[in-house]
Amino acid sequence: FPGTSLSPALALVYDLLENKLAKDYNIDGSRIYMAGLSMGAFATWYTVIHKPNLLAAAVPVCGGGDPKELHKAKNVPIWAFHSLDDDLVPHQCLLVAKEVMERENAPDFHATMYEHEGHGSWVRAFLERDVFDWMISKVNPDPEIK
Length: 146
Fold this sequence. Notes:
Elements: H1 8-24, E1 33-37, H2 39-50, E2 57-61, E3 78-83, H3 92-103, E4 109-114, H4 122-125, H5 131-136
Parallel strand pairs: 1-2, 2-3, 3-4
Protein backbone atom coordinates (compact mmCIF):
# COMPACT_ATOMS: atom_id res chain seq x y z
CA PHE A 1 0.00 0.00 0.00
CA PRO A 2 1.60 3.34 -1.00
CA GLY A 3 2.43 5.71 1.80
CA THR A 4 3.01 3.11 4.50
CA SER A 5 6.64 4.05 5.07
CA LEU A 6 8.40 7.37 5.46
CA SER A 7 9.82 8.50 2.13
CA PRO A 8 13.14 10.36 2.00
CA ALA A 9 11.35 13.43 0.61
CA LEU A 10 8.81 13.53 3.44
CA ALA A 11 11.59 12.98 5.98
CA LEU A 12 13.27 16.08 4.55
CA VAL A 13 10.03 18.06 4.87
CA TYR A 14 9.72 17.09 8.55
CA ASP A 15 13.39 17.90 9.15
CA LEU A 16 13.08 21.28 7.44
CA LEU A 17 9.96 22.17 9.40
CA GLU A 18 11.11 20.93 12.80
CA ASN A 19 14.83 21.72 12.72
CA LYS A 20 15.10 24.78 10.52
CA LEU A 21 11.85 26.70 10.03
CA ALA A 22 10.52 26.22 13.57
CA LYS A 23 13.85 27.30 15.05
CA ASP A 24 14.65 30.21 12.73
CA TYR A 25 11.20 31.70 12.21
CA ASN A 26 8.27 32.60 14.42
CA ILE A 27 6.00 29.70 13.43
CA ASP A 28 2.70 29.17 15.20
CA GLY A 29 2.90 25.41 15.77
CA SER A 30 -0.82 25.26 16.45
CA ARG A 31 -1.55 26.41 12.88
CA ILE A 32 0.41 24.08 10.61
CA TYR A 33 -1.70 22.76 7.74
CA MET A 34 -1.04 20.20 5.02
CA ALA A 35 -2.72 19.62 1.70
CA GLY A 36 -1.54 17.16 -0.89
CA LEU A 37 -2.59 15.72 -4.19
CA SER A 38 -1.97 12.20 -5.45
CA MET A 39 1.36 11.09 -3.88
CA GLY A 40 1.22 14.30 -1.84
CA ALA A 41 -2.13 13.08 -0.50
CA PHE A 42 -0.50 9.79 0.51
CA ALA A 43 2.13 11.91 2.31
CA THR A 44 -0.67 13.88 3.97
CA TRP A 45 -2.36 10.69 5.16
CA TYR A 46 1.00 9.37 6.37
CA THR A 47 1.51 12.56 8.36
CA VAL A 48 -1.91 12.54 10.06
CA ILE A 49 -1.38 8.87 10.97
CA HIS A 50 2.22 9.02 12.18
CA LYS A 51 2.47 12.62 13.40
CA PRO A 52 -1.09 13.46 14.48
CA ASN A 53 0.06 16.33 16.70
CA LEU A 54 1.94 18.10 13.91
CA LEU A 55 -1.04 19.45 11.97
CA ALA A 56 -4.03 21.62 12.76
CA ALA A 57 -5.85 20.25 9.69
CA ALA A 58 -5.23 18.23 6.54
CA VAL A 59 -6.70 18.13 3.03
CA PRO A 60 -5.67 15.00 1.11
CA VAL A 61 -6.92 14.76 -2.48
CA CYS A 62 -6.74 11.51 -4.50
CA GLY A 63 -4.72 9.55 -1.97
CA GLY A 64 -5.06 7.14 0.89
CA GLY A 65 -3.61 5.90 4.13
CA ASP A 66 -2.85 2.50 5.55
CA PRO A 67 -6.29 1.11 6.48
CA LYS A 68 -4.84 -0.64 9.55
CA GLU A 69 -3.50 2.65 10.90
CA LEU A 70 -6.10 5.23 9.84
CA HIS A 71 -7.65 5.16 13.32
CA LYS A 72 -4.57 7.05 14.60
CA ALA A 73 -5.72 10.10 12.63
CA LYS A 74 -9.20 10.28 14.15
CA ASN A 75 -8.57 13.49 16.09
CA VAL A 76 -7.00 15.44 13.22
CA PRO A 77 -9.45 17.62 11.26
CA ILE A 78 -9.44 16.11 7.76
CA TRP A 79 -11.35 17.01 4.63
CA ALA A 80 -10.57 14.38 2.00
CA PHE A 81 -11.50 14.45 -1.68
CA HIS A 82 -11.56 11.83 -4.43
CA SER A 83 -13.37 10.99 -7.66
CA LEU A 84 -15.24 7.80 -8.49
CA ASP A 85 -13.60 7.63 -11.92
CA ASP A 86 -10.01 8.12 -10.75
CA ASP A 87 -8.03 5.70 -12.91
CA LEU A 88 -4.74 6.01 -10.98
CA VAL A 89 -5.69 5.90 -7.30
CA PRO A 90 -8.81 3.88 -6.49
CA HIS A 91 -11.64 5.88 -4.94
CA GLN A 92 -11.98 3.07 -2.40
CA CYS A 93 -9.12 4.77 -0.53
CA LEU A 94 -11.55 7.49 0.51
CA LEU A 95 -14.38 5.04 1.19
CA VAL A 96 -12.15 3.04 3.54
CA ALA A 97 -10.99 6.21 5.32
CA LYS A 98 -14.59 7.34 5.71
CA GLU A 99 -15.59 3.97 7.13
CA VAL A 100 -12.73 4.01 9.65
CA MET A 101 -13.38 7.60 10.69
CA GLU A 102 -17.09 6.92 11.18
CA ARG A 103 -16.30 3.80 13.22
CA GLU A 104 -13.83 5.81 15.34
CA ASN A 105 -16.32 8.68 15.76
CA ALA A 106 -13.81 11.14 14.33
CA PRO A 107 -15.08 14.55 15.39
CA ASP A 108 -14.01 16.54 12.32
CA PHE A 109 -13.75 14.31 9.26
CA HIS A 110 -15.28 15.31 5.93
CA ALA A 111 -15.30 13.32 2.70
CA THR A 112 -16.22 14.70 -0.68
CA MET A 113 -16.56 12.25 -3.57
CA TYR A 114 -16.92 13.54 -7.11
CA GLU A 115 -18.23 11.51 -10.03
CA HIS A 116 -16.40 12.73 -13.13
CA GLU A 117 -13.16 14.45 -12.14
CA GLY A 118 -10.77 11.57 -12.80
CA HIS A 119 -7.39 11.76 -11.14
CA GLY A 120 -7.39 15.55 -11.43
CA SER A 121 -10.08 16.13 -8.82
CA TRP A 122 -7.82 18.55 -6.95
CA VAL A 123 -8.82 21.28 -9.39
CA ARG A 124 -12.42 21.04 -8.26
CA ALA A 125 -11.47 20.32 -4.64
CA PHE A 126 -9.40 23.48 -4.31
CA LEU A 127 -12.19 25.48 -5.92
CA GLU A 128 -14.59 24.31 -3.20
CA ARG A 129 -15.89 27.43 -1.59
CA ASP A 130 -15.35 26.48 2.03
CA VAL A 131 -12.27 24.25 2.06
CA PHE A 132 -9.65 26.90 2.84
CA ASP A 133 -11.84 28.76 5.33
CA TRP A 134 -12.51 25.43 7.04
CA MET A 135 -8.81 24.56 7.09
CA ILE A 136 -7.51 27.83 8.51
CA SER A 137 -10.24 27.89 11.15
CA LYS A 138 -8.59 24.88 12.80
CA VAL A 139 -6.14 25.22 15.66
CA ASN A 140 -4.15 22.31 17.06
CA PRO A 141 -4.77 22.17 20.84
CA ASP A 142 -1.61 20.10 21.47
CA PRO A 143 0.94 21.03 18.81
CA GLU A 144 4.09 19.01 18.32
CA ILE A 145 5.96 22.21 17.44
CA LYS A 146 5.62 24.81 20.17
